[in-house]
């Protein structure tokens, strides 16, 4: 048994290299959750094997722990745990959630792999690691290319998942994919440089596939990182290189500069190019919505993080900080649990110490690369390039379990390689041995393996049950709720995800697609799940907002506790003051009462109450159009046209598009018969949804009212083909049009 485990142990250390290929249908987040669960499970298995071997008397390279660089991961882990214990919610910090799967547990697993690798492997492990990464990354890249071809051609390839937006390959997310491949490509090039004949061509072909996949992923952070690292490399070789390499580098540098000049000269034209990678890179500017959103997050989250610069807020608490500063007038996305800057993520979570230690990890790999480079070791250059790419791209994206593991695995293997070099290839395992009874080594390993049950098996079961319930949440509500309740009874960290999904299922589908008792049952399940999470996670603005929306969407005849609803809304607004949804629901309580009032005075009183709330919210978000258009419509209902005009005029300059905002603006402009603006907003609605034929018909009427009879007639003829019978619903308009 001991010999078998010893032979398997080093291969188990390489097993995470295969994880990027793993994805499983039938799970929630099928590309991310299986990878996280498998990574954590492998960490437990490897730790159990190590403890068995150590307590059975096997020798390890204990002397390597004397290197100061080897202390950095342990120090980072200690700081992370301390910050999380002092932070907001250690339970959430430890387990994280399904959709990313980070947290202390994943960080701990990565650090465990680092130390077990450092203590166990010889100098041959580094090339083995890069060979494994090269083959896996090449397979992932081939998958990406097929996924892209399927997307542009409409051909469905077997075993290739449909791309939803930018291609994400087997990692499910374009940023995750590019971040991983941006590191893997250097390992592949290293192995290619050491290979001969057919294998040399095979590895270089693999590196080419990986670069193509990076381009197709259109992740600007990785593309900029590779461009910067490539430019600096050419600059160094053009200055310090020799012979043909020096001349070639100068030619390459000149070509890169010419290419960059042409790119920036034609950037405006390229920004509208149909090829997504070119378009995304060319559209980089401070005016770009994505870029401005990132800058907003960096500025405001950093300012909030400065309130706790020493200890941070604990792992997985970035969303809480983001909710405080969220401003719908300045950012597109609703919810964020990362800042798209790994260094800032570490600062928010673990304070300045955590940030310095994280940066030190990257610097340590670069330092080992420089040491090997000075010894004329080929590995040194590629380690330095890998560290540089990782550092630059992580300034624009977020880290993942796979990229963090690859960084730590490369660092530990590089330290082992350098240690062997320092020992002139004669480094031997330490003579330190732990001699214990065989039953004790088996017992310790067994106790560690038991951790698989709460860490991997139970969360996997909860995920499967959640996915099963989601499949039937409309077609078989009873079965769905039964699956959900079984999943929640496992008492895993999936509870918060169950709440989010309950909200999404109810408000997106069940509320409109179900009726009678089925809708009531769906509502009650969503209410109970979110209420439990509301009590369990009092800092989560998302849960509070979702719970309020579900309460506000109760089926007819189901009583709602208004006092409880108001308390939920109060917390939601407190946690995220500028978020629109909670503020609108709060105002909607008064509006519903106004609509039900039988006396005009009573109705006006409730409307005034709602208006007061909305005006307060509008002052909190001075650059947001939507609440101003809502106020304009409400004032029109009250007959106060002057106030209505004031709010509409104030909102118009801040209008940036969006169907929901356009529909709210329409109510006011139709009421005041401002047909030019009616035409403008209807045109935006139709542009967002070309199959919205009723809105297209309204746009035809607006065209006629603004004097464009020919365009109106053209639209009517188009509608007769696309939606027969629709135009005949308004014979007065057809008569006016003369059609």
What can you see in these coordinates?
The protein is mainly α. The chain has a domain at 2-422. Helix 31 (693-705) packs antiparallel against helix 32 (709-722). It is globular. The chain contains 33 helices and no strands.
Principal-axis shape equals globular
Strand % is: under 5%
Fraction in helix: over 70%
* Total count of strands: 0
Overall mean pLDDT stands at: 90
Q: What is the helix tally?
A: 33
For the termini, the CA-CA separation is 89 Å
User: Residue ranges: pLDDT <50 for 5 or more in a row?
Assistant: none
For the largest beta-sheet, the strand count, sense and barrel status come to: none
Oligomer state of the chains in this structure: single chain
Structural class: mainly alpha
Kindly provide the radius of gyration, computed on alpha-carbon positions and rounded to a whole number of angstroms. 30 Å
Provide a concise account of the structure shown.
The protein has 739 residues and is mainly alpha-helical. The chain is 72% helix and 0% strand.
List the SSEs and their pairings.
Layout: H1 2-14, H2 33-55, H3 72-86, H4 90-95, H5 103-120, H6 125-153, H7 174-194, H8 197-217, H9 220-240, H10 243-265, H11 267-270, H12 276-282, H13 289-305, H14 318-325, H15 342-374, H16 378-393, H17 401-422, H18 438-450, H19 452-471, H20 477-488, H21 495-513, H22 516-536, H23 541-552, H24 562-575, H25 580-596, H26 600-620, H27 626-637, H28 641-651, H29 659-671, H30 675-688, H31 693-705, H32 709-722, H33 731-737
Helix pairs in contact: 1-2, 2-5, 2-18, 2-19, 3-5, 3-15, 5-17, 6-7, 6-8, 6-17, 7-8, 7-9, 7-16, 7-17, 9-10, 9-16, 13-14, 13-15, 15-16, 15-17, 19-20, 21-22, 21-23, 22-23, 23-24, 23-25, 24-25, 25-26, 26-27, 27-28, 27-29, 29-30, 30-31, 31-32
């Amino acid at each position: 048994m001991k010999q078998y485990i010893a032979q398997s142990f080093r291969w188990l250390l390489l097993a995470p290299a295969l994880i990027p290929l793993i994805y499983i249908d039938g799970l929630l987040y099928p590309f991310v959750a299986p990878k996280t669960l498998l990574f954590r499970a492998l960490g437990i298995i490897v730790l159990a094997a190590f403890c068995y071997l150590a307590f059975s008397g096997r020798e390890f390279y204990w002397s390597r722990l004397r290197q100061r660089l080897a202390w950095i991961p342990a120090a980072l882990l200690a700081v992370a745990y301390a910050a999380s214990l002092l932070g907001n919610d250690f339970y959430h910090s430890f387990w994280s959630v399904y959709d990313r799967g980070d947290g202390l547990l994943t960080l701990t697993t990565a650090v465990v792999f680092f130390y077990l690798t450092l203590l166990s492997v010889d100098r041959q492990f580094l090339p083995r690691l890069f060979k494994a990464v090269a083959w896996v990354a090449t397979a992932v890249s081939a998958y990406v290319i097929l996924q892209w071809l399927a997307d542009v051609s409409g051909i469905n390839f077997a075993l290739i998942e449909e791309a939803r937006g930018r291609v994400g390959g087997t990692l499910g997310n374009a940023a995750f994919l590019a971040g991983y491949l941006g590191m893997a490509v250097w390992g592949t090039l290293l192995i290619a440089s050491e290979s001969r004949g057919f294998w040399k061509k095979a590895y270089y072909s693999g590196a080419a596939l990986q670069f193509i996949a990076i381009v197709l992923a259109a992740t600007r952070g990785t593309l900029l990182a590779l461009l910067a690292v490539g430019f600096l490399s050419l600059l160094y070789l053009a200055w310090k290189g020799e012979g043909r390499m020096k001349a070639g580098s100068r030619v390459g540098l000149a070509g890169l500069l010419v290419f960059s000049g042409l790119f920036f000269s034609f950037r405006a034209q390229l920004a509208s190019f149909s090829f997504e990678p070119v378009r995304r890179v060319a559209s980089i500017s401070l005016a770009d919505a994505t870029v401005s959103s990132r800058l907003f997050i960096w500025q405001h989250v950093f300012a909030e993080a400065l309130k706790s610069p020493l200890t941070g807020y604990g792992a997985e608490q970035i969303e809480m900080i983001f909710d405080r500063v969220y401003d719908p007038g300045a950012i597109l996305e609703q919810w964020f649990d990362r800042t798209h800057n790994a260094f800032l993520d570490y600062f928010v979570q673990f304070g300045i110490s955590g940030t310095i230690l994280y940066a030190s990890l990257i610097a340590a790999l670069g330092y080992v690369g420089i040491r090997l480079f000075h010894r004329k070791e080929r590995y040194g250059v590629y380690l330095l390039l890998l560290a540089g790419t990782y550092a630059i791209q992580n300034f624009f994206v977020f880290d993942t379990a796979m990229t963090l593991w690859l960084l730590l695995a490369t660092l530990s293997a590089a330290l082992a390689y350098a240690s062997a070099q320092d020992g002139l290839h004669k480094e031997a395992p330490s003579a330190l041995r732990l001699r214990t009874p065989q039953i004790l080594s088996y017992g310790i390993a067994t106790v560690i393996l038991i951790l698989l049950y709460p860490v991997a098996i139970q969360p996997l079961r909860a995920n499967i049950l959640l996915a099963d319930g989601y499949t039937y949440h409309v077609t078989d509500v009873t079965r769905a709720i039964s699956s959900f309740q079984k999943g929640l009874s496992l008492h895993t960290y999936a509870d918060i995800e169950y709440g989010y999904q309950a909200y999404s299922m109810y408000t997106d589908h069940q509320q409109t697609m179900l009726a009678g008792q089925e809708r009531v049952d769906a509502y009650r399940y969503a209410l109970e799940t979110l209420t439990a999470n509301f009590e369990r996670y009092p800092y989560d603005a998302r849960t509070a907002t979702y719970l309020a929306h579900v309460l506000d969407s109760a089926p007819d005849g189901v009583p709602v506790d208004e006092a409880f609803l108001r308390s939920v809304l109060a917390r939601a607004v407190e946690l995220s003051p500028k978020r629109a949804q909670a503020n609108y629901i709060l105002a909607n309580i008064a509006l519903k009462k106004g609509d039900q009032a039988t006396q005009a005075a009573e109705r006006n009183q409730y409307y005034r109450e709602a208006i007061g709330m909305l005006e307060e919210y509008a002052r909190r978000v001075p650059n947001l159009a939507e609440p101003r258009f809502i106020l304009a419509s409400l004032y029109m209902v009250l007959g106060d046209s002057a106030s209505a005009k004031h709010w509409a005029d104030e909102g118009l300059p801040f209008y940036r598009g969006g169907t929901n905002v356009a529909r709210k603006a329409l109510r006011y402009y139709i009421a005041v018969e401002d047909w030019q603006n009616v035409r403008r907003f209807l045109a935006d609605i139709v542009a967002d949804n070309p199959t919205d034929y009723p809105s297209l018909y309204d746009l035809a009427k607006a065209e006629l009212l603004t004097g464009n009879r020919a365009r109106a007639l053209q639209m009517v003829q188009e509608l007769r083909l696309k939606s027969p019978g629709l135009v005949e619903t308004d014979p007065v308009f057809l008569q006016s049009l003369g059609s």
